[in-house]
Structures are given as C-alpha cells and as structure tokens.
C-alpha cells in the first residue's frame, strides 16, 4: 500500500498536524495493504494522507516480520516530511495528500496505455530506482499500487515496508507481491537490484497489453508459470525497441536480465536513447498522460463507514512498538547516513 505526497511542507508546518486523532476528520480509506490502510483526512482546512498500521494484527511471541517492516519504513521515512505517533492499537503516519491516485487505479480505468505514456512512466520509475540502487537499497515491491501520480502526471515510488539494504546472503528474504516478484526471490535464492527491474518489466508489459505477464491465481501457480515459461511481449503495433526492452527485463535468470549491472544499463537502452534525463529530473517535460478530476481512488472506499483501530487492542507484552512516538524529520541529503552500510564500498564496482 502506498502513501501519497505532493506539495512539500516544512517540518515546522507539519508539526502543526501531528497525529492527535481528535484533530482529524476521517473521510475515507484510499488504499489498503498487508499491514494497514491509508486514509484521506482533514485537519485545519487541509487534507492529509494518514497511514494506519495496526499493531494487533501483527504481534507475536517473537518479533514479527511486520514489525521489522515498521522499523525499516519509519527509518526510511526520516528522509521525508513525515510525523509518526501511536494511537491505541495503531501506529499513525501523516504526510501531505494528493488526489491523483496510483497507477493501478488509472490502469484499471484506461485498460492500457500508449507506448509514449508508458515510456514516460518508465522514466519516472527509473529515476527513483537509480536513487535507491545507487544507495544499495532494494525496494522489492515495485507494483502499480506503489506508484503514485503527482498532480503533474509524474510517478513516484512509495512504500518501503519490505525494502532491504543489499547484502550478499539474502536468500531468506523472500517478501514481495506474486505477479511482480522476481524468480530468484520467489525461489529463495540470493538476489540484487535486478529483482526490481523484473518487476518493472511486468509493469511495462501490463501497461502496454492490459494484462499481467504471469496470471496465476495463487502464489504457487505464478511460481510454476515463472519456472516453466519465459514470457515475451507481443509485438503487435509496438516498436522493436520496447519489445526488446521488456523481454530483456523479464529474463528469468537475473544474470541475463537488463538491469543486473545497475540502473545505468537500463537507462542507456535504445528505447530510452533520446531521453533528456536532466529535464525530467527538473520536471520540465510535460507528462503525456493527463490526470483528470480529483480523488482518483477506488470508489468502493468512498462513503465506507470505518474507524481507526477497529481491531481489538492487545497489550504490547514484548515492547515491540517502542520508539514510534515521534519521528524526527531529516534533510533529504542525510539519506546516505540513514542507510549506512559497508557494502557501499561496492558502488564503484558492480551491482549485485
């Protein structure tokens, strides 16, 4: 599940909106994920996105995977204008709100996209992945639900809940979303940045055809399809460059996949040869897909009567959720300090 952000608020401004629940009017849920929900809320005539992570769903006698995700995401959120606090059975995160919706919503609405529109989406995703991967961060859950549009039509990656700093022996870290999960992750082998590029290939395939490359109904079915079949993008009406781009991203063997050597390899592909990256970084290029209307979220959520912490409150016997009372904001330049790792010494050599 993704959080939404748009116009930047200073830390002092955002402090005025710390998540004291009584200050907020809950409007409706705009997204759901494995560990909680995201709400559209209103406070002092401003709208915000409130991410609710429910503790009682995720407690165990030992430290659960979900709790590790909380800690990892809250650490990552120090790079953004985010405030975090606890309320009864939930951890609440507040961020600025945008109405443009995620790629999943618009994909369902449009059916599929043109090659030009898809190319622009890829450019946006690659700019974000370049930043993550050059800091040796694997997102591991790139999917349409975690790609959010801003009001200018640029896509942003959200949800670092299962992100990891790369390490050599990571075969046991197999979280992800079936249908976008790389074969090496699904088959519990060591993996690197190439896993995010496999997901990118799935997304491009879906944007261009309106269908996922692997359409099994269960995790097991998808795994069997990935093992038994090498999917290729149909080339009807598409350029040979985009067909090659997608097919190389969807290579089952990571060492043969476009992106195994890092983001620069993907960004230099012939399909992207004429991209003026600096103009895209500065948002000087007009998006070919126009966001129309407001509150571009699944209509099933609107007018749904729900409440925060509707799950039964449970005592935190193991003190697993200490440290979430307040999350200090940091300058974005400090992200390298947050993700300090000895493996950063490898940045100048190879992406693993």
From TrEMBL:
ATP binds at residue 51. GO terms for biological process: intracellular signal transduction. Residues 273-336 form the AGC-kinase C-terminal domain. Residues 24-272 form the Protein kinase domain. Keywords: ATP-binding, Kinase, Nucleotide-binding, Phosphoprotein, Serine/threonine-protein kinase, Transferase. InterPro entries: AGC-kinase_C, Kinase-like_dom_sf, Prot_kinase_dom, Protein_kinase_ATP_BS, Ser/Thr_kinase_AS. GO terms for molecular function: ATP binding; protein serine/threonine kinase activity. Belongs to the protein kinase superfamily. This is Protein kinase domain-containing protein. It comes from Paramecium tetraurelia.
